[in-house]
Amino acid sequence: MAVGATAAKLHLSSAAAAARRPSMLHLVAVAALCSLSYLLGIWHHGGFSAAPAAGAGAAVSIATAVSCASPTPTLSSSTPSTPAGPLDFAAHHTAEGMEEVEAAQRQRAYDACPAKYSEYTPCEDVERSLKFSRDRLVYRERHCPASDAERLRCLVPAPKGYRNPFPWPTSRDVAWFANVPHKELTVEKAVQNWIRVDGDKFRFPGGGTMFPRGAGAYIDDIGKIIPLHDGSIRTALDTGCGVASWGAYLLSRNILAMSFAPRDSHEAQVQFALERGVPAMIGVLASNRLTYPARSFDMAHCSRCLIPWQLYDGLYLIEIDRVLRPGGYWILSGPPINWKKHYKGWARTTEDLNEEQQAIEAVAKSLCWKKVKEAGDIAIWQKPTNHIHCKTMHKVIKSPRFCSSQNPDAAWYNKMEACITPLPEVSDIKEVAGGELKKWPERLTAVPPRIASGSIEGVTEEMFVEDTELWKKRVGHYKSVISQFSQKGRYRNLLDMNAKFGGFAAALVSDPVWVMNMVPTVGNSTTLGVIYERGLIGSYQDWCEGMSTYPRTYDLIHADSVFTLYNGRCEMENILLEMDRILRPEGTVIIRDDVDLLVKIKSIADGMRWNSQIVDHEDGPLVREKLLLVVKTYWTLGDNEQ
Q1: Which residues have a Cβ under 8 Å from the Cβ of 512 and sit 6 or more positions away?
Q2: C-alpha to C-alpha distances, 442 to 230, 234, 438, 574, nearest whole angstrom
Q3: Distant-in-sequence, close-in-space partners of 12: CB < 8 Å, separation ≥ 6
């Protein structure tokens, strides 16, 4: 009986298990429902169309820097690199959802601006400037578009016939006429040997208003008075630079000059300098401080720059004092220097010129400058290495006073004041305020005094050394993925949009290039002083605004984390359009940023006549930060291709 009961229980248990086991019909039904759900999902997110063609806006590709199966990719202006393999990572990396991807797919193609904007400078626009005061040349300062409605949403065209500039050093002496089609200076400055037309070219003989024997001979005369050859002078400032021949000829002496002049009646003088491959910016001494930190330049220069140094309580000479390093030199040639010889040619009275010189001498003395020498047409003063004696003297001479409140390095729309910027305190009369610099080239890699002294919060000597090594590695990686980077003459004018300590520029110091190191005002702008202490040059910049330079200034633009820095501050499109304005046709852009931002950037860039490609970080494909490499296509006024 027990055995039968047990058997019955087993039979019932088996029947129940069988009832719970799914039948073949159930399995088929579930599979059909899953397949239907999957197909509906695909249809909902784009249908069953074929994969996008190569170059389509929806496709974002990634290429590894090194492939076992193929050589290192090359990015060139004529034949863009082919990615190692297309990879649409919109669904894998985009956190904001499909709406953003779909918006990116609706790519905008940007039109060319009208011909009148070929030399457009948004913050020095001639028409806008006329709305501002002419007092002290305020109307020639930066006055950027006040609203988005004033911004150009188009691509600034190159003039018809534009050609790539001559490679350095040939470019120092010759440029294509079609690139800067202006003859005004060739007529106005004909007797001064600035520039002349030679067929389809401009020639730059190296002359200047006050150096008729040429810039080289003029610099040699300066070198007989102050040490230009021992590495103690590296950075220079040329105020009212003309076509920047002084800066051009200093380069062969390992001296790097920042040249500036306003956009004025001397049409395109800064543009000529940049075509020559010489560092220059649009700028003017008016009411705002120059866009450099205190103690930046080893010497400053004015050769008939027509700046009224003696007026406004010596305001402009006081600003030169702010940006000069302790022990730095100021060089003046032209009126009123050597007025006894030149007063007739200058069409001025001897009394007027003598009064002007005495007034300049008085301002220089009030700044505690020492007059080194006046020889012929050149006069040179030297700033003290510290302010121990100067502060003692100013207990008796009250004017100008020492500044008490302003940050000495603040120089982005900060107004000039008629007060002396105090040098850092010292304990001994022989000590150099702020720390003594090594001579060039040692100062490039030596720990800058601002860092060694702890003046920059959160930055240590170890961090600086590591940053220098990091950029050597990164520039090496750039050269491995852009073969033209190592090609002599391919690039000359470079821009680093977020320079930090200047590591990118330092890693390229042996190449025949120069780098304009921009430090964004929205970040840690205190590092621009470090860049100058290294013997490099640069400026403050807010990338929500235009840069004070002409279109087609740079051969290569480097943007490290710029779009992360400005995310939420201003439109990505505005920054990219400004980059396009200042980039030469067939120029290169390297954008280093988070991959999600690069996807968005690429969706805009592909509508700007740019060829672009995303490549891996130097540490491999698993790093979220990657590189977007860009080549701007060649097109000029009148071209119809988009």
Answers
A1: 168, 169, 488, 489, 492
A2: 12, 11, 6, 39
A3: none
Pairing of strands 625-632, 583-594: antiparallel
Cβ(83)–Cβ(613) under 8 Å?
yes
CB 581 within 8 A of CB 120: yes
One-letter amino acid of 42: I
Q: What is the chain's mean pLDDT, rounded?
A: 86
123 touches 144 (CB < 8 A): yes
What mean pLDDT comes out for the span 294-322? 97
Q: Are 178 and 163 in contact (CB under 8 A)?
A: yes
Whether residue 541 contacts residue 281, with contact meaning beta carbons closer than 8 Å, is answered with no
Question: Residue 108 corresponds to which amino acid?
Answer: R
Residues linked to residue 559 through DSSP beta bridges, in sequence order: 591
As beta bridge partners, residue 516 has 495
Residue with tokens 């002599």: 488
Cα–Cα distance between 374 and 365 in angstroms, integer?
A: 15
pLDDT band, residue 395 (cuts 50/70/90): confident
Q: What is the pLDDT of residues 41-67, one digit of tens each?
A: 544 444 433 333 333 333 333 333 333
* Cα dist from 172 to 135, 164, 508, whole Å: 35, 14, 20
pLDDT score of 88 more than 50: no
Tens of pLDDT, residue by residue over 101-136, are: 445 445 689 999 999 999 999 999 989 999 999 999
Instruction: Note the pTM of the prediction, 2 decimals.
Output: 0.84
User: What residue type is 434 in one-letter code?
Assistant: G
Written as six digits, the tokens of 420 are 């002396």
Minimal CA–CA distance to 525: which of 438, 450, 601?
450
| Angstrom distance (rounded) from CA 126 to CA 287 | 18
Query: 521-554: per-residue pLDDT in tens?
Result: 998 889 999 999 999 999 999 999 999 999 999 9
In the structure encoding, which two tokens stand for residue 235, read together? 């950075």
Element of type H or E holding 247: helix 245-250
